[in-house]
């Protein structure tokens, strides 16, 4: 549980590859688990389905969540993450191409920690990844609660 894991929820293979490459270029050395839809994201977080053998108490440090995913949307994933005591304090950063104001507002209404629009330019994207890694993985203080705690 000491190793900070990033869960990347991204259905577009090109965007996933770009994100992984940008994080590598930004020297983010954390283990990254990539899932391709909302169901797989929730299955990973709640240790069910194909991830049933995973320890549910070992959550990722950061969830990078795309909004427009198949099966279950990113907003619904966020809604379920915030509704569950085990995951309600999980750091969630929306990483999306959406420019819709309603997506931005809904994300914050549901308790997202940050909302980042994916830059089109690779250098800008790498810089954004560097900032995400530095802030959320190194600088930000995250509470560590005992398993099953409601506070």
Molecular structure report:
The longest helix is centred in the last third of the chain and has 18 residues, at 122-139. This protein has five helices and five strands, in the order E-H-E-H-E-H-E-H-E-H. It is 38% helix and 16% strand. It has helices spanning 13-25, 38-45, 74-83, 101-109, 122-139; strands spanning 5-9, 31-35, 62-65, 91-96, 114-117. Strands 2-1-3-4-5 form a five-stranded parallel sheet, with helices on both faces. It is globular. Strand 3 (62-65), helix 3 (74-83) and strand 4 form a beta-alpha-beta unit. Mean pLDDT is 83; it is low at 145-151. The chain has one domain (5-138): Rossmann fold (3-Layer(aba) Sandwich), CATH 3.40.50.2300. The two termini are 20 Å apart. The chain is an alpha/beta fold and 151 residues long.
Mean pLDDT: 83
Assembly classification: single chain
Q: What's the β-strand tally?
A: 5
CATH topology: Rossmann fold
The best one-word shape is globular
What's the N-to-C terminus distance?
A: 20 Å
Backbone structural class: alpha/beta
Order of helices and strands: EHEHEHEHEH
Integer-rounded radius of gyration: 14 Å
Count helical runs.
5
CATH class: Alpha Beta
Tell me the β content. Answer: 15-25%
- Regions with pLDDT < 50 over 5+ consecutive residues? 145-151
Order of strands side by side in the largest beta sheet? 2-1-3-4-5
Largest sheet: 5 strands, parallel
CATH 2nd-level architecture:
3-Layer(aba) Sandwich
Which superfamily, in CATH terms, is the homologous superfamily? Response regulator
